[in-house]
Design brief:
The complex is a heterodimer of chains A (218) and B (179). Chain A contains eight helices and no strands. With 218 residues, chain A is mainly alpha-helical. With 179 residues, chain B is mainly alpha-helical. Chain B has eight helices and no strands. The radius of gyration of chain B is 17 Å and the shape is globular. Chain B starts with a helix and ends with a helix. Classes of the chains: A mainly alpha (218), B mainly alpha (179).
């Protein structure tokens, strides 16, 4: 096909679809939607269920303050994930994974700092039931930021699936955990590690299915 | 054409200006054709990828953010199109009759041009690993910075620099050894 033929063919293919498009806002701005979703979920959750029973012992800084630190990490991960939906903006996947590791470390440090002040643990014989409640709650709460994340990602072009899956999955799970820790009063490691930190695996699995679907559509 | 001019054309194209698309096509086609000839195994495959790249540019035009360089954005889309094609070929287990379809001519880094004739240069370039030849041509032929190569290929800038350096060194070794 010579040059003129190719240009003519391309113009005839794109001509019916030439309506003006609005360029996507910068990833940092788009990531702020996560904050709006978090505030909405927080309002609903605490109106219905209320705060953790040891909030008086922990104080505002170790409850809301620590959760906002986790949310800040989520915003960073979300922003990096959205950058991977803009061609030539994503950067190195290994650097992205370093940020994920950092966010997970923040969640561990927050949990440790909470445990230092309040060491409530589930009553004997109820550990499994409470673990299941926390796992389920965090998984359910993560669905909203996951859906939001992939709605935003689908407007771009996913060129690197694995970093997007890990970044969006962990960000959504961490956003959910930052909410649920304001409700769950148990801070001991045998509860927090499997039921809160471990709950972050499920959103990553859901994110992998969502990423494949978005990728096939683009 | 400068990056500013390309950026202005992209903005007009996003507003639905088909003449702006034609301007972008004329400005970018030679470079894209050269880049896709590095990635593709045959001339017809490179031509197919070129067409699909411009169609993908059209579908993804809202992802171009004003003020960012156009060329790395376009090359990243071209690379994505190539990888999707490679995956499709692997999944359908299509066998290319490469012997009947000539290999595309690859762009030659200016530093290597005087070292051998055209045929030897093409053979030498074909012996480089795929990741090195990409970095070499992006940097030495099209003037990408290592940051831009990193952004296009999804690697760190220092990795891009190492690949380009090793690729040029290997190219010179191959050409020197053949004398």
């Amino acid at each position: 096909m010579d040059d003129h033929d190719l240009l003519t063919r391309l113009k005839s293919e794109i001509a019916p679809d030439l309506a003006p498009v609005q360029p996507l806002p910068a990833p940092g701005l788009r990531a702020l939607w996560l904050l709006a979703a978090w505030v909405g979920l927080a309002g609903g959750l605490f109106m219905v269920l209320g705060f953790r029973q040891d909030i008086g012992v922990l104080g505002a800084w170790r409850t809301v303050g620590f959760s906002l630190i986790e949310v800040a990490c989520c915003l960073v991960l979300f922003r990096i994930s959205l950058r991977f939906s803009i061609p030539a903006m994503g950067g190195s996947p290994s650097t992205a994974l370093v940020w994920v590791a950092g966010a997970l470390l923040v969640q561990i440090v927050v949990s440790w700092a909470t445990l230092e002040r309040s060491a409530l643990s589930p009553s004997p014989g109820h550990e499994w039931r409470i673990a299941l409640v926390c796992l389920s709650a965090i998984t359910l709460l993560s669905l909203a930021p996951l859906a939001l994340g992939f709605a935003l990602l689908s407007r771009g072009l996913l060129t690197r699936l694995l970093p997007v899956i890990v970044l969006t999955g962990v960000a959504s799970g961490l956003a959910a955990e930052s909410l649920w820790r304001l409700r769950c009063p148990y801070s001991n490691w045998s509860h927090v590690l499997p039921s809160h930190s471990g709950a972050l695996v499920v959103p990553v699995l859901v994110a992998s299915a969502a990423a494949m679907w978005v990728h096939r559509r683009s | 054409m400068t990056e500013q001019e390309l950026s202005d054309l992209m903005a007009a194209y996003q507003q639905g200006d088909i003449d702006a698309f034609e301007g972008l096509y004329r400005a970018l086609k030679p470079r894209l054709q050269g880049y896709l000839s590095v990635l593709a195994r045959s001339r017809s495959q490179a031509d197919d990828l070129l067409q699909e790249t411009f169609l993908q540019i059209h579908r993804s035009r809202r992802t171009y953010l004003r003020g960012r360089p156009v060329v790395p954005w376009v090359f990243a889309i071209a690379r994505h199109v190539h990888l999707m094609d490679l995956r499709k070929r692997t999944q359908t287990r299509r066998r290319e009759i490469v012997s009947d379809d000539p290999a595309p001519e690859m762009p030659v880094p200016p530093e290597a041009e005087g070292l051998a004739d055209r045929e030897r240069l093409q053979r030498a370039l074909g012996q480089l690993p795929a990741d090195q030849i990409e970095a070499v041509t992006l940097h030495h032929v099209w003037g990408f910075t290592f940051q831009e190569i990193g952004a296009t290929l999804g690697i760190r800038a220092v990795t891009a620099k190492v690949r380009a350096f090793r690729g040029m060194r290997r190219l010179k070794e191959i050409l020197g050894a053949g004398r």
